[in-house]
Amino acid sequence: MGTEMVKLLQERHFPLASLKLLASERSAGKLLDFAGESLPVEVLRPEALKGQDIVLGATEADVARQYAGVIVEAGGVFVDNSSAFRQDPAVPLVVPEVNLADLTAHCGIVASPNCSTILLVVAVWPLHRRRPLKRLVVSTYQAASGAGAAGMAELERQTRQVLAGEVPTAEVFPHPIAFNLFPHNSAIGADRYCEEERKMVHETRRIFHSAALPIAVTCVRVPVLRAHSEAVNLEFEEPFPVAEALALLREAPGLQVVEDWERNHFPMPVEASGQDAVLVGRVREDLSCPGALDLWLSGDQIRKGAALNAVQIAEQLAGGRR
Amino acid sequence: MGTEMVKLLQERHFPLASLKLLASERSAGKLLDFAGESLPVEVLRPEALKGQDIVLGATEADVARQYAGVIVEAGGVFVDNSSAFRQDPAVPLVVPEVNLADLTAHCGIVASPNCSTILLVVAVWPLHRRRPLKRLVVSTYQAASGAGAAGMAELERQTRQVLAGEVPTAEVFPHPIAFNLFPHNSAIGADRYCEEERKMVHETRRIFHSAALPIAVTCVRVPVLRAHSEAVNLEFEEPFPVAEALALLREAPGLQVVEDWERNHFPMPVEASGQDAVLVGRVREDLSCPGALDLWLSGDQIRKGAALNAVQIAEQLAGGRR
């Protein structure tokens, strides 16, 4: 995710005076290309964070918690991709296309949501804003990239093993992922929702300022390399004509409508990979429930689902939309 | 599917006086092992169907329509796996675990449902029978085997291509299936449901004798070789305690409960493949809706999803449960 953020800063011509790359001891010393220069990766230490205007975090929650104080005390703003502060009422949880106004209330820390949440809210917000949602039922189809580069490597390695007639060996995931799928492997709570599902429920509610919005969600890992997909059933308080919903999605920022009913062509992970926009389509009336719609989306979990959203937040902090 | 039925007749010691194997010209002349004998495949012709007590069909709908009359006129019973007669009010649509009583009303033709429908009704019936469903929301994760042996071969071939850095070539599916997924590639109707989705709605209603049961369904093809999975959200008229639901599922025929919350181990396609039972688990309260439950299932699309269900129907016709 760090590498992807560096790429985005360059692609989007982020207004930088200087760029410092920090990582654990393991990555320190590596060189990354940036705008024709070769930048060294330095070791993440409290001193290295001083004097920075904006710090983009791509670490686990415990590392984010450990360093947030240092960044804020030194006068910087911390844009955190981890789950450390997402439910902290003092920290805005921001998806620029949805709740940019929340950003102004930050006290030095801004949280970027979970990847599956970001893809969902970008697609659903234009509809919810027009006519309030009554309930959401979501099933996810989440790529191996959700477990980082190691997850993607495991999918490739296991796939080669299966094709060679060998038994796939699992290191990153608890179960084989090659030619297989399973409910999301995050910690399961007393309510029997896994952590990924709880994140989608609670983060969506915070971002929408709808504290009690009913959301049922089932998160599933699938043998796809890089983009997540979601089947979304949306119940509204009042009927929502399909044509009106489509028109709203077509003009909404961060979305690309992909719908060709003749050719049966809708959003797919291979087409969403590497794209900034969340692909959305297959919008249809749910015949089982008056006032309900179904839609289908695919979005790059590493870009809009993580790195791009954080960079967009940083762009706003650096002075206005780019 | 034909090969799988022959295997099942042998495994389950079907009470056979004789067995005749019929296929198109392309397969005629091949030999299949059966109970120590080598049986030749003959060409499917009207004359070949005369004098048979039971004919198990594993053909497309048009072939089933073409030959059904000959079978019935000759006094045989036709157990059809195609979609030809599934919505014919004169033809019972049967899943033995659910609506065996419907079988007695047959007039020479019995239909076996669509694979995704069979897996769904076997898992949901024990609950619906106890407390009536108000609405179902289903998302499927369907294996390449749904498009037959050619679909499985395409997934394998494309996967090798992608791993070799080549562009995958699509022949069976309209889009790449390797490391990708897409909404089900069956014909889309005016209501924007695809044929697979319409089958699940209408067949489930017929089997349950619940002509207006509201069912929302999204069917998706995933890069899995052989078993289908489904995320099922069930709304009931009254609250359904999880413990009671689980107890019903544990004692229901055709199901195996797979639930290990500690180890995050639930039904998976690789474990469902080759199994007769539909694997079901991850039964939890849906926190978004009072009286709703979520469950997750995986089932072998070729066995219980097709060949096994047809053979079970034939066993009943041949004189009682085996």
TrEMBL record, chains A, B:
Q: Return the CDD domains for the record.
A: ASADH_C_bac_euk_like, VcASADH2_like_N
Question: Known Pfam families for this protein?
Answer: Semialdhyde_dh, Semialdhyde_dhC
A single GO molecular function, which one? NAD binding
Q: Which GO terms describe its biological process?
A: diaminopimelate biosynthetic process; isoleucine biosynthetic process; lysine biosynthetic process via diaminopimelate; methionine biosynthetic process; threonine biosynthetic process
Q: Which UniProt keywords apply?
A: Amino-acid biosynthesis, Diaminopimelate biosynthesis, Lysine biosynthesis, Methionine biosynthesis, NADP, Oxidoreductase, Threonine biosynthesis
Q: Which family does it belong to?
A: Belongs to the aspartate-semialdehyde dehydrogenase family.
Protein name per the record? Aspartate-semialdehyde dehydrogenase
Source species taxonomy: Bacteria, Bacillati, Cyanobacteriota, Cyanophyceae, Gloeobacterales
